[in-house]
Design brief:
- The protein is an all-beta fold.
- It is 2% helix and 50% strand.
- It has one helix and 56 strands.
- The strands form six sheets. The protein has a 37-stranded parallel sheet that branches. Strands 36, 39, 42, 45, 48, 51, 53, 54, 55 and 56 form a ten-stranded mixed sheet that branches. The protein has a three-stranded parallel sheet with strand order 2-3-7, with no helix packed on it.
- Strand 54 and strand 55 form a beta hairpin.
- The radius of gyration is 34 Å and the shape is elongated.
Length: 661
């Protein structure tokens, strides 16, 4: 009796694959007849194959139920030497059977073929439900070269079978379909069909015209590609995840990683260096009565994605249809480089019922260069269903080379951008237009915003810090309702800035418009420390009614200061007192005169009656200067009470005081 090898795999495996070339010489079936070993090379009488010899370059190798394993960890056939075959097919009829192939280290199993009509998996003649369970493991290489489709999923009209091809324990996998496609998903019309799954090897390279995840059955199933633990390369002109680009495609699809390690690079089959692939994540362009979802999730993994069109959560029909169900797509990226020419998300056209479309695009890190984004459209004959598009920017650097727009619609649309930790550089382009996008500016960095919703208000909400950098030309108002807004760079828009209760304005840039700090709001110029320049008026009278300090200034050799180049500073009548300031000493702080507000016009209002206090070991007094155009703070050393200064020393102390601008 031969001794079977046990091994530990990451999750269990999936399906089957076929390729073939030339006239068929033989179909050779594995029977495990050798009592000595499980080697592929053991053929002939008393060997492991049904034919007179082990399969060769013109043969089809088939694995059925004979000599199958009862679990995923028992190897029942071993590729022990380099071998080239015409096609490889796994077709067990019992869901309790496993076919577990091991390719030894240094060994390559090559499948060369052109016949894409036969699936790598269940036979079309087998009635379901059945499960094809296959693992391919070992330190060797599995290479497929086909000039036609490679299909992983059964091919009958009424079958309801599922499968798993698990190559997660294999060192290297390569596949090239030539002009064909790599298809994962059930192929039939049975509504009972269930998902199919492929798990790539540690190092995997797929080159194909199109990668299709999702079959033709009307069932709610998801066909999944789990990427391996090492370098993963997909060279595909088009990648469809749960998309239905042509009649009959109705299944859902997913690409994600199988483990916490692994990297992904996407290019095209035509240009593996600079090519841009089209990535469709639940992008439905034909009539289908199926619920379709798509998921592309590479979060937590370094990715190099070069894309042409990224379509997420769209259902676009040429004419009105009432039977189409909902569509949902999600794309997640947070490490590496994402380079996209155009993004279309949440587009719903001629879906004449209550079923909506939902699109979510998550960028949590890395570098993202995006040409333009169209988010949320509900047009044509739309019924009562809605179109929803959400862009979550929680990390990384995102740069646009065009507008983020919401096209005109006839139905309900929700278009939302959440800026919460990322750096968004609009490069002078606009967010929204007359059809507005909800822009939740929570935290992170916003640069070079050309326009927002045709003059709409920019609202800084929630705790955290939002930094304005570059040149922001948007014309609408800026409303800070919570957290801190640091106005760095140049902010040239004409809309007023309002700092509400619980919010803070700071920064070392310039604001051309009027600024008002409401009751409960705070003004903290500079960036530890620095100068905030205002080109219009500043009204802090509302903020001075608070019991707690509302003016936050750092004092040192370089100090915080507000400069008004033309507008008037309004402080109210007798409201501005020493206790309205929270002074923080920094390097270089000492006796002298500090200019807190430097204006070019007479201040509107008067100082209060409590103008003196202490800062550390120094005494300080507020006053106005320069013909009542500036507010200054005079700091002197505190003289110990028991001691009286000689007359000469008092004069020297006065001379030592300096004015600090």
């Amino acid at each position: 009796m031969k001794t079977r090898m046990n091994r530990l795999l990451i999750p269990v495996a999936m399906i089957a694959l076929t390729a073939s070339s030339g006239a068929r010489a033989a179909s050779v079936t594995w029977n495990g007849g050798s009592a000595a070993n499980d080697f592929w090379s053991t053929g002939g009488a008393g060997g492991n194959w049904s034919g007179s010899a082990a399969p060769g370059s013109g043969d089809d190798a088939i694995f059925g139920d004979t000599d199958a394993a009862a679990n995923s960890s028992t190897v029942n056939n071993i590729v022990d030497a380099n071998r080239t075959i015409r096609s490889l097919r796994y077709a067990p009829t019992s869901s309790s059977n496993w076919q577990n192939t091991q390719i030894n280290t240094g060994v390559t199993l090559t499948v060369n073929g052109t016949d894409g009509t036969r699936s790598f998996g269940l036979s079309a003649a087998i009635a379901g439900p059945q499960v094809t369970q296959v693992t391919i493991s070992g330190g060797g290489t599995f290479a497929i070269n086909s000039s036609a489709n490679i299909r992983i999923g059964e091919g009958g009209s009424t079958l309801s079978n599922t499968g798993i091809l698990d190559m997660s324990g294999l060192a290297v996998f390569t596949a090239n379909t030539g002009t064909g496609s790599f298809i994962v998903g059930p192929q039939g019309t049975s509504a009972a069909a269930a998902p199919w799954t492929v798990k790539f090897a540690a190092a995997s390279t797929l080159t194909t015209t199109a990668l299709q995840l999702g079959g033709t059955t009307p069932a709610t199933d998801t066909s999944t590609l789990k990427l391996g633990s090492g370098t993963q390369i997909i060279n595909a002109n088009t990648i469809n995840l749960g998309s239905a680009p042509s009649g009959g495609n109705r299944g859902s699809g997913e690409i994600s990683f199988n483990t916490t390690t692994g990297t992904l690079k996407i290019r095209t089959a035509a240009d593996t260096v600079n090519g841009r692939a089209d990535l469709n994540v639940a992008n439905v362009t034909n009539v289908t009565g199926s619920l379709i979802t798509g998921l592309f999730d590479v979060a937590g993994h370094a990715a190099d994605l070069r894309l042409n069109n990224l379509n997420v959560g769209n259902r676009v029909l040429a004419s009105a249809n009432t039977g189409t169900l909902a569509t949902s797509g999600t794309f997640s990226f947070d490490n590496g480089t994402l380079d996209v020419t155009a993004v279309s998300m949440g587009k719903r056209t001629n879906v004449n019922n209550a079923n909506g479309v939902t699109a979510v695009l998550n960028i949590g890190g890395g570098i993202a260069n995006i040409g333009s984004i169209s988010m949320g459209q509900n047009s044509g004959t739309v019924g009562t269903g809605a179109a929803s598009a959400t862009l979550n920017l929680t990390g990384g650097n995102v740069t646009l080379a065009g507008n983020i727009s919401r096209p005109a619609s006839t139905g309900t649309v929700s278009s939302i951008i959440n800026l919460d930790g990322a750096s968004l550089n609009m490069a002078g382009f606009a967010i929204g237009g007359s059809d507005a996008i909800t822009f939740n500016a929570k935290s992170g960095t916003l640069s070079n915003l050309g326009a927002l919703n045709s003059g709409g208000t920019l609202t800084k909400s929630t705790s955290g810090t939002l930094i304005l950098t570059g040149t922001n030309n948007y014309a609408g108002q800026t409303l800070v309702t919570a957290g801190t807004l640091l106005a760095n760079g140049t902010n040239t828009g004409s809309g007023a800035f309002t700092i509400q209760s619980g919010a803070t304005l700071g920064g070392s840039g310039s604001i051309a418009a009027a600024v008002t700090v409401d009751s409960g709001g705070k003004l903290a110029p500079g960036n530890s420390p620095g100068m905030l320049t205002l080109g219009s008026t500043l009204d802090i009278s509302g903020a001075l009614s608070n019991a707690s300090p509302s003016m936050l200034f750092e004092l040192g050799s370089t100090s915080d200061k507000v400069v008004l180049t033309s507008g008037i500073l309004t402080i109210g009548s007798g409201l501005l007192n020493f206790d309205d300031f929270a002074f923080t000493p920094v390097t270089g702080f000492g006796p002298g005169v500090y200019t807190l507000f430097d204006t070019a016009q007479t201040i509107s209002g008067t100082l209060g009656s409590s103008l003196t206090g202490t800062i550390g070991a120094f005494s300080a007094t507020l006053s106005t200067a320069n013909a009542n155009q500036d507010v200054i703070l005079t700091v002197v050393a505190v003289v110990p009470a028991p001691m009286a200064l000689p007359a000469g020393l008092g004069l020297m102390a006065l001379l030592a005081m300096r004015r600090r601008k």
